[in-house]
Structure to design on (84 residues):
């Protein structure tokens, strides 16, 4: 799990396309959520599982809002990317 998170963090830091950055961030949140579900099952904790379900719902809303912001940014600028 640590290798997955470190690879996704490296991918997030190295890319310059906004869509791939958003996808990497969503994958990081999903990795943390899956780990929370696993640890809730190991320790027989229902609160951790319920919290992770709330996190999944919030991540869906966040990705819908992020995608709508990217679409509006593309309509304004004509490109979806950033330069350093």
């Amino acid at each position: 799990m640590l290798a997955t998170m470190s690879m996704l963090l490296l991918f997030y830091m190295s890319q310059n396309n906004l869509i791939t950055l958003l996808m990497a961030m969503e994958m990081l949140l999903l990795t943390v959520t899956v780990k929370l579900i696993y640890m809730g099952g190991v320790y027989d904790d229902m609160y951790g599982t319920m919290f992770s379900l709330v996190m999944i719902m919030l991540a869906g809303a966040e990705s819908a809002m992020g995608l709508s912001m990217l679409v509006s940014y593309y309509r304004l600028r004509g490109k979806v990317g950033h330069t350093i």
The mean pLDDT is 80. The two ends are 31 Å apart (CA to CA). Residues 40 and 46 are 7 Å apart (CA to CA). DSSP finds three helices and no strands in the chain.
